[in-house]
Amino acid sequence: MRKQILFWVSLFATISMAGSAWAADRGRDGELKLLYWQAPSTMMPYLSGGTKELEASSIVIEPLARYDNDGKMWPWLAEEIPTVENGGVSNDFTSITWKIKKNIKWSDGSDLTSEDVVFTYEYCTHPDTGCTQSNYYNDIVSVEALDSHTIRINFTVAKPFPYSAFVGYNAPILQKAQFENCVGAKAQECTEENFHPIGTGPFKVVDFKPNDVVVLEANSNYREEGKPAFSGVLFKGGGDAASAARAVLETGEMHYAWNLQVEPEILNKMAEGDSKGTIIAGFGTAVERLMVNFTNPDAALGEDRAEYLGGNNNRNAHPFLSDYAVRRALSLAIDRQILVDAGYGFAGKISCNVLPAPAIYASTANDECKTQNVDEANRLLDEAGWARGSDGVREKDGVRISILYQTSTNSVRQGTQAFIKEMWKAIGVETELRNIDASVFFGGDIGSPDTYQKFYADIEMYTNTFSGTDPEAYMNSWTCKEVARRSNNWGGNNMPRYCNPDYDALATQMSKTANLDERIRLAKSMNDMLMQDYAMIPLIHRGGVSAYSNDLMGPVGNEWDSELWNIADWHIHK
Q1: Distance between CA 478 and CA 266 in Å, rounded?
Q2: Could you say which of 341, 397, 405, 479 is the most buried, measured as most Cβ atoms within 10 Å of its Cβ?
Q3: What stretch of H or E contains 335?
Q4: Is there a contact between 568 and 562 (Cβ–Cβ < 8 Å)?
């Protein structure tokens, strides 16, 4: 049987091994070699929405709680998960109180205290920081230190799910002493701090070369005796997904390779026979989707380029994507099964939702997208007055449907682009394809015109996910306040610049709703509004695919948090 199998091991199995075979000297297994072909551009997750930055920083800076590979929440820096039953959550859901474990040290030897947690909130919520994870701190009126190891979060409304702030790899704790002079407009200027954050995790940064390599060493102040087993980590970037897979499965030069977005026939061949590694895969919330730009990205607009300017129908509306008929036609023209078969195989399936999981939240109201319908797409465009010109490209009132379609550099993504270009050609749409190095595209450099946050194109394609299994913070990503714009240093999560008061009202209602059935209804309604407005066009529900060396023990994958969530327990098989 091929090795492209689901290989999820429970947390309990991991812990049970730790007590005996792993209770040895810290650093005994030498250097751990990780290959993340999308190299991190910073170690500061609050200044980048890229998964590569979240993954890299997760082994250095940690949250109060995080999620295991089954999506279950576990206390991490906290003593326990606060609940109403244990007194940690108030009966009216307007506050949550966390108790931090005693004697946890930062890697510089100083104590982790409540002040660090309070500071992290102040850092991310400062309006000039440009925090990319601000949606994890919604509806908070204050975070206060009750004593040196107890903090209380006070909400503006009752929060039936109060576990967004400081939970998961999206919302880790920063050291106040290191970052207190890096708040607001100064955040981007603190290069040394952003590249070398002091943390409580199993490793600390020794050297950081943006978009290339991170060198880390074991944190001598790490709280668990004998861990980590590795003396250091080489976190290598660059290359492509296929070469990353090859480095584990064929040559064995690396221990772990992440995000193997590789054509199925190539990956299958690598995994056959006497492969030196094993593939792990699992489905979480990842959806490869097309983001539709509701604003005008024309460079001639200067500072107003791709800016949401508000007003009736948006005063800087996109010249043709603001037309509902165009957006819907683009979706109808796509044969998603071809994209799955050619680029993903066992690791992909058609998705008509941006929220495909957990299964209880998956809507069936948008299944029209499962079947390509070129005739209907052409009819919609004809009816809307978009006529074909002499070259076959549709136009109206001097505006041509000519799309600049961008994504990160990856052979599967470029293959998807090529297929979609031909599919759109069948409905009279002209498409220019552009691919940008992933380290730049997802890098978050506010000076670069090529980031996915700037979105200086008509359509862009990528995937992102969220921590845990509750979708509230994730679905808040497309509220008006999350619009990525110059004033927030392009730190918002709303890349399409979609602003709909009806959507915001649903988000507000969900933030106050405790009943699970009602939360499911609201999450589906929010998903359906985005899908039926074509604020984005979902393509493929992607499985997370990585590979690890046959000599390496411990990796279990995780679609609900960092894949490296339990790296302190990784070790070499003896």
Answers
A1: 36
A2: 479
A3: none
A4: no
